[in-house]
Design brief:
Elements (H helix, E strand, L loop, with lengths): L1 E10 L2 E12 L4 E4 L4 H4 L1 H11 L8 E7 L11 H11 L11 E3 L2 E2 L5 E2 L4 H10 L4 E5 L3 H4 L6 E5 L2 H8 L12 H7 L15 H13 L3 E4 L6 H6 L10 H13 L15 E2 L7 H5 E2 L4 E2 L1 H4 L4 E4 L7 H5 L2 H6 L1 E6 L2 E6 L3 E6 L18 H8 L4 H5 L3 E4 L5 H5 L7 H18 L14 H7 L4 H14 L3 H17 L7 H9 L3 H4 L4
Parallel strand pairs: 3-4, 5-8, 8-9, 10-17, 10-18, 11-14, 14-17
Antiparallel strand pairs: 1-2, 2-4, 6-7, 12-13, 15-16
Length: 512
C-alpha cells in the first residue's frame, strides 16, 4: 500500500515541497531513496523505536521511502515524523484523510518525543504558498511557524499525539499569534543606550552619520577608549526594521544551525560580534550543509569585527564581494545557494600591536616597521570599502565625571529616521537602492553634485591623502548623508569637509 506525506527541504533561506512516499510491499529490508544524507538514512532506527514506543509495530516487509523530487538533496533529521506516519498508514495501522492537508516535519527521539528542527519559518511560508491547511511540527517550534498567518500551526509533543490528532481522536487548537502586535511591541527594546556614554561626541557623530546613510565604519584607538561599548549601541539608533525585513532576518536565523531555536519574530536589528578566531566558512557561510555565516546572520543589522587585524586575512578578504553586492553566493559541488547579506560593517582596531598610537620621532614600544606590519593586515581594497574612518581617543577624567547628560538613542534615532526618509523619497523609483551607501558610481555622479569650490577642496584632499577612485565615491556618499542630516538639498562645502575628515586615517596610519 502506498501512502504520501508532505514535508519540505530547505536550500539557502527558501523551502521546497517534498513528497514522502512510503510503500510497504513484498520482500524485506528498509530503503530510503531520493538523495538522502546520512541523517535521513539513520531515521530508520529512530522511526522504528518511536513506532514501537507508541504501541505500534514496524513492518517486517520491504519498506521503500522515496523523497521526491529525487534530484534535490534531503538533509537532516526533520523527516522522521513524516516517515513514521507514512509507514504507519502504508502498513494499515492508522487511517486518516488529513495527511494530504498538512505539511508534517519533526525529529523523533527513541521514545517518540518530538525534538525541535531548524528552518521552520521558510517551511511555513512555503506551506501557505502551496495551499496546505496547516503545519504539524514539534511544539517547541510552533511559535516560530505561527509568525505565518492563514496557516493552522499544530504543535505536538509526541508521535502518539500526532497520530491521535490525525485520526481525530483529540482536538488541538492551532496556535495563533498577532505577528504585527509582537513586532511593534518589541521593536524598540534595547538594553544599551547612547545616553550611558560619557564624552566621545565625535564618535557618536560619526556613527550617527553611518546609521543615517547605512555606511560602513572603522574605529581606530587604544584599548579602553570605548570602541566596543559604542559599537554595541549602534543598533539602537538605526531605523526600526520593517515587517518584511524582520521576516527576512528571521528566515536566515531559522535555517542557521548555530543560531539556536527561534522563539518568535526577530524585531530588532541583529548585532553580530564574532571572535577573531572564526574561520572563513563561519564568516561567509558554507560548510557541509551550506549554512549561513555571520555576515548573513547580521542581515539588516550590524556586523561588528573587534580587533580587525587579528582576523585571518583570508577571512577578511571574503567580505569584499558581499559588501558590494549585499548578498553571498556559495557554490559547492553539490549545489549553489544564495544568502542575503545586507549589513553594516563596523570594525575596530588598535593603532599598533601594543595598543598605543604611533608618534613619529617619539620613544615607543613598537617600531615603525612593527606598526606598518600590523596595519598592513588590512588590505587597501577592503579599507576602500569602509566609508568612515574614526580616530578614537581615551575619555578624559573630566568627561567621565561630568554630570552632563548625553543624548539618548531615541533622540539620535529621530534624526537618523528623518535622513533615511529623505533617502527613501530620493530612491523611490530605484528598487535596488534604499540608502546613500548603496549608490553605485553612476548614481553618485547624478545625485552628489558639488560646487566648484567643493571640487577644488576634494581634489586637494585626493592628492594629499592619495585616495582611490572608490574612496572618492565614498566621500561623496558620506557628504550627501551629512547634508541629509542637516536637511539640506545641496551638498555644501562644510558637508564635504566633514566627509573628507572621515578619510584622514588613510594618510595618518596606512601610509606611515
Amino acid at each position: 500500500m502506498l501512502s504520501k506525506v508532505f514535508g519540505c527541504a530547505v536550500q539557502g533561506v527558501e523551502a521546497y515541497e517534498v513528497t514522502i512516499e512510503v510503500n510497504v510491499g513484498q520482500g524485506t529490508k528498509f530503503f530510503i531513496v531520493g538523495l538522502p544524507d546520512n541523517a535521513v538514512k539513520e531515521s530508520e532506527q529512530r522511526v522504528e523505536a518511536a513506532i514501537k514506543y507508541a504501541g505500534f509495530y514496524m513492518p517486517r516487509n520491504k519498506v521503500v521511502v522515496n523523497l521526491a523530487p529525487a534530484d534535490i538533496r534531503k538533509e537532516g533529521s526533520a523527516y522522521d515524523l513524516s516517515i513514521a506516519l507514512g509507514v504507519l498508514q502504508s502498513s494499515g495501522q492508522i487511517e486518516t484523510e488529513l495527511l494530504s492537508k498538512y505539511v508534517i516535519m519533526g525529529e523523533l527521539a527513541l521514545d517518540g518525543i518530538l525534538r525541535p528542527i531548524k528552518g521552520v519559518l521558510p517551511i511555513a511560508i512555503e506551506a501557505r504558498k502551496r495551499g496546505f491547511k496547516g503545519f504539524i511540527l514539534p511544539k517547541e517550534n510552533a511559535k516560530e511557524a505561527a509568525i505565518v498567518n492563514q496557516l493552522d500551526v499544530i504543535g505536538v509533543e509526541t508521535l502518539s499525539e500526532a497520530i491521535q490528532f490525525l485520526e481525530s481522536k483529540i482536538s488541538i487548537e492551532p496556535l495563533v499569534l498577532d505577528t504585527r502586535d509582537i513586532f511593534f511591541t518589541s521593536q524598540n527594546e534595547y538594553d544599551a543606550d547612547f545616553a550611558h556614554v560619557q564624552g566621545q561626541e565625535n564618535i557618536k557623530r560619526a556613527l550617527e552619520i553611518a546609521a543615517a546613510g547605512g555606511h560602513n565604519a572603522i574605529m581606530v584607538g587604544p584599548p579602553g577608549a570605548g570602541k566596543t561599548m559604542i559599537a554595541k549601541r549602534l543598533p539602537s539608533i538605526l531605523p526600526p526594521m520593517t515587517l518584511h525585513e524582520a521576516l527576512e532576518t528571521t528566515k536566515v536565523h531559522s535555517v542557521s544551525g548555530r543560531a539556536g531555536s527561534i522563539k518568535n519574530l526577530i524585531a530588532q536589528r541583529p548585532f553580530r560580534a564574532p571572535h577573531h578566531t572564526l574561520s572563513d566558512v563561519a564568516l561567509v557561510g558554507g560548510g557541509s550543509s551550506l549554512q549561513p555565516g555571520e555576515i548573513s546572520l547580521a542581515h539588516n543589522g550590524v556586523l561588528f569585527l573587534d580587533e580587525l587585524p587579528e582576523f585571518k586575512r583570508s577571512a577578511l578578504e571574503v567580505l569584499r564581494q558581499p559588501l558590494e553586492e549585499r548578498k553571498v553566493v556559495i557554490s559547492r559541488a553539490k549545489g549553489t545557494v544564495e544568502f542575503p547579506a545586507n549589513f553594516m560593517l563596523i570594525a575596530s582596531m588598535n593603532p599598533s600591536p601594543s595598543g598605543d598610537f604611533y608618534v613619529q620621532g617619539n620613544e615607543h614600544p613598537d617600531s615603525q616597521s612593527a606598526v606598518q606590519r600590523y596595519l598592513s593586515k588590512i588590505s587597501g581594497p577592503l579599507l576602500d570599502r569602509i566609508d568612515i574612518h574614526i580616530e578614537v581617543t581615551p575619555v578624559s577624567f573630566e568627561q567621565m565625571t561630568a554630570n552632563r547628560k548625553s543624548e539618548s538613542s531615541v533622540v539620535i534615532r529621530e534624526r537618523v529616521i528623518k535622513a533615511r526618509n529623505i533617502q527613501i523619497e530620493r530612491f523611490k523609483d530605484i528598487d535596488s537602492i534604499h540608502c546613500n551607501a548603496m549608490m553605485p558610481s553612476e548614481t553618485v555622479k547624478r545625485i552628489c553634485i558639488i560646487t566648484d569650490a567643493g571640487k577644488s577642496l576634494l581634489k586637494t584632499a585626493m592628492e594629499k591623502l592619495r585616495l582611490s577612485a572608490r574612496a572618492y565615491d565614498k566621500i561623496l556618499k558620506v557628504s550627501r548623508t551629512i547634508a541629509d542630516l542637516a536637511e539640506s538639498p545641496d551638498i555644501k562645502i562644510e558637508h564635504l569637509a566633514e566627509a573628507i575628515q572621515y578619510r584622514s586615517l588613510d594618510r595618518e596610519f596606512w601610509n606611515i
